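Incident review: delayed structure delivery

Summary: a single-chain prediction request sat in the queue longer than the usual turnaround. Root cause was a stuck worker, restarted by the on-call engineer. No data loss occurred. The affected request and its eventual output are reproduced below so the record is complete for anyone auditing the incident later.

Affected input:
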Amino acid sequence: MDQKVIDLYDAYTHGGISRRLFLDRLATLAGSTAAASVLLGALQNDYAQAQTVSEDDPRLSAGMVAVPGVNDLQGYLAKPRSGGRSPAVLVIHENRGLNPHIKDVTRRLAAEGFLALGLDYLSPIGGTPADEDKAREMIGQLKHPDVVASGRAAIAFLRSHSEGNGKAGAVGFCWGGGAVNDLAVAEPNLAAGVAYYGRQPDAADVPKIKAPLMLHYAGLDERINAGIPAFEEALKKAGKTYELYVYEGANHAFNNDTNAARYDKAAAEQAWGRTVAFLRKYVA
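Output delivered after worker restart:
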């Protein structure tokens, strides 16, 4: 797909332009409204593909749970049936909320032996809707202190869980990647953080970070990558433990295998392998 189309969609999904302007520009790029409709179908997530680990996988137990500390906060908890204590990981969704893809990612981590919680950051204001545009609108209503409070409540829940090992890390994607970085600044008990193409925190806040970080970036993601130099300089200056990877030729959201236009199998698999190893190193 033409990179201009992908960049246009990225601008739309991250609030840079309105839906009407996006559709008008997409029609111009595609050559017609009918062609734009075909492109839009390829650009949008297909959640029928979100079953890498099935909901009824016999290895796992999964379902929604209440998370104390924030009114009406809920999450999707997936855990191995094997018993014993497992390292715990908070999974933070993109700006579409706790959708089928993020639930599947949560189950993938559980299949790797983690106690995994896919938190619904929209649950205190009604929960993630099926309509992705509505979900993005709701994400825009969230206030930064409330996002941080929800993340900290989730980490406390996981650290005290009877089936956890007392440690909790976090992994997030897109909006969730930025939330991981913010959580690392605010939560001294975070054992490790993995941010996929996430907005960077202010350089002045980097010294507050205690957790080791793994940072995944897409080579074609100019919007997010503009913040890398200042962030990395601050991490080095503060003597923080981190690993930073840029996947050349990959687009923002390259890990999302329900999005045919942006998914990059090679980059996603390499990043996932690194992520699981990193979490096992610091959270197990």
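Verification: The longest strand covers residues 164-173.
Action items: add queue-age alerting; document worker restart procedure.
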